[in-house]
Amino acid sequence: MNKTCGLDVHKDSLFACILDEQGKKIFEKRYGTLTPDLDELRTNLLENGCGRVAMESTSIYWMPIWHVLESDFELKLANPYFIKQLPGRKSDVKDAQWISECLQKELIRGSFVANDVMQQMRQYTRQHRRQTKSRVRLEQQLDNQLQRCNIRFSNYVSNQGNNVSMRKIIRAIIGGERDPVKLCRLVHGRTKNKHGETVITNSLNGVIQQADVEMLKQCMEQIELLEKQQATCLNHLEELANKYFAEEISLLCTIPGVQKFSAWCILSEIGNDMDVFQKANALVGWSGLRPRNDESAGKIQSRKTLHGNKYLRQILVEISWAATKSGKSFLGKKYNVLSKRMKSQKALLAITRKILVIIFNVLRTKQPFDPKRNIQAVVA
Question: Model pTM?
Fold first, then answer.
């Protein structure tokens, strides 16, 4: 039995406790979280002959510690939910000692930790999603500002944020144009033919003040900046994906509903090595798509899904919506059958689980999705 170390990680400090082969405490110390402090921690662990280290996955604070120690030690990242100490006296030192004891007695099952390439891709995909939310919020603010000026053009177009005519009108207003007839000339002919040129012209006749122009200008500048940043994220993401996951991307794109960006997001979250999860059921549970087993006295109390990787779950739900739009596909037909005997949300979640199992088998077998057979039948 090797010497083990437990780390209780916080934002500005961490506590280390080393146990020897007999389970006796031989070293404990409080460290800061600056790089010199982490280097000192690594030196102390090496001096004490510690071979294995475990820590809780506390927010993102464990990441720099992992990067410093991963080259010299066997590391395990523990889910705090599974190693909570029994009620009683609590201290940071005791928490570190408890983690070390759990590691020594093989009670900790290490969590999945993405490699460097996946972590870089995760940063790009998650930042892109955050930027999308910010851009949508600004587009709504832009429309509200126009409504405040009694410019009702958004009532007659869809996709107000990316509508070309809407962008031209806003830029013209910012540039000083107020004549509704001239503004109407910027509108696409299809929109004028559908609703009538008179209606569109009247919708562009508003009361615009200088403060309104300034708000529109600021919103447009922020939207354009976000679009530029999103394009940069996508370029870097595409470079990494094509360099390390070119084959896997082409395989995933054979699955209904999966496009390139969806494939990038999937690979950034789960990678291409399915041996980490062993079985498709383990991946489904890790992603938070498995219904819980809450039964008492023969009655089912709840079937609510478990907590899991929310970023993976979000992109899978989007893929499911796209896949179920076609009633001719296997997944679309399955959704139509399920939605007749359960709520549409539950039916969609069932399709989401099925798609994740398909993804697992496609990556495991390195074979494209074949709609003529049920790929779930492949033995893991």
Answer: 0.84
